[in-house]
Design goal:
One of its GO terms (biological process) is proteolysis. By secondary structure, the chain is an alpha+beta fold. It contains nine helices and six strands, in the order H-H-E-E-H-E-H-H-E-H-E-H-E-H-H. The chain is globular, with a radius of gyration of 19 Å.
């Protein structure tokens, strides 16, 4: 299926180096068309109602979180007394330390070619966030909840007022959302801004959409706000990545979403930042997933 419909802009991903050694600079003036903005805003508001309903079934008493083993990637010690260069110590990052297929893994890669398996998978360790604004009170998996609290706290210390505007959405909610978008905008348009059920990262419980109470709610301009810039630069320290970066629509399958942060844990997030690799697909050597298979 060809991607078209909402807006036209250069296919930057096609010309970008798949693995760049440096961060890809943001493109200027890349705000989504207003129709798309309205659609997303309406989508978010629609999601509120659906989620309020969905939460009733989604928030069954959570299973206790299983003890998560440390990935166990110990940096080899230098055999001579080195000058203290904590971040420059050589290390081998183990890409196989955690599964990218298991939906319960913090590293699970979900995209248009990789549905969650089972497709209606639901996390067992959903918890509420504490001490942060959470517009629809959607839960998160426990590690992501604690991490986003720290991330928002860090942003606050830096002078930014950040809140959660979306978090966990269950399968049934995504079914209702996606069907509504298709009915309104058609499948081609809906597929650019909404995931089909079973393909939404929000279903992992590891994703938050963030906002700064400004005028860029679910809008491409959020990345250019002081809060959005701070989050993009510092998210990795808290274990998050910007999952749908600029210029990678043909890799991730989704238009840039500077508000959508995926928890992968600090080990992976920092490694990706160090290497300048901005997508999970490229980091793990997976095929680009521009469309549903
Ligand atoms: Zn999102």
């Amino acid at each position: 299926m060809k991607l078209h419909g909402l807006g036209t802009r250069p296919d930057t991903a096609a010309s970008a180096s798949p693995v760049s050694g440096a961060m890809i600079p943001s493109e200027a003036g890349n705000a989504a068309p207003s129709s798309a903005r309205r659609a997303r805003r309406a989508a978010a508001l629609g999601a509120a109602t659906l989620v309020a309903l969905g939460a009733l079934t989604a928030c069954a008493p959570a299973d206790p979180a299983p003890p998560t083993a440390s990935p166990g990637t110990e940096a080899p010690k230098a055999d001579k007394p080195a000058t203290p260069t904590p971040t420059a110590e050589p290390h081998a990052f183990d890409r196989g330390a955690q599964s990218i297929d298991d939906p319960a893994s913090l590293w699970v890669v979900s995209n248009k070619a990789r549905p969650l398996n089972p497709i209606d998978w639901a996390p067992g360790d959903l918890v509420a966030t504490n001490g942060v604004e959470n517009e629809f009170a959607q839960p998160l998996r426990e590690p992501a909840a604690r991490a986003v609290e720290a991330l928002i706290g860090g942003a606050k210390e830096a002078g930014h007022s950040v809140w959660i505007i979306s978090a966990y959405r269950d399968y049934a909610t995504q079914v209702a959302l996606y069907d509504g978008y298709v009915n309104r905008d058609g499948a081609a348009a809906a597929d650019r801004y909404s995931a089909r059920p079973g393909h939404s990262e929000h279903q992992t419980g590891l994703v938050v959409d963030l906002d700064d109470h400004g005028s860029c709610y679910l809008d491409g301009c959020f990345g250019d706000t002081p809060a959005g810039s701070w989050l993009a630069e510092n998210a990795a320290d808290y274990g998050f990545i910007v999952r749908y970066p600029e210029g990678k629509e043909q890799v991730t399958g989704f238009m840039p979403e500077p508000w959508h942060f995926r928890y992968v844990g600090p080990d992976l997030a920092l490694e990706m930042r160090d290497q300048g690799v901005t997508t999970l697909e490229e980091f793990f050597g997976l095929p680009a997933a521009p469309d549903y298979s």
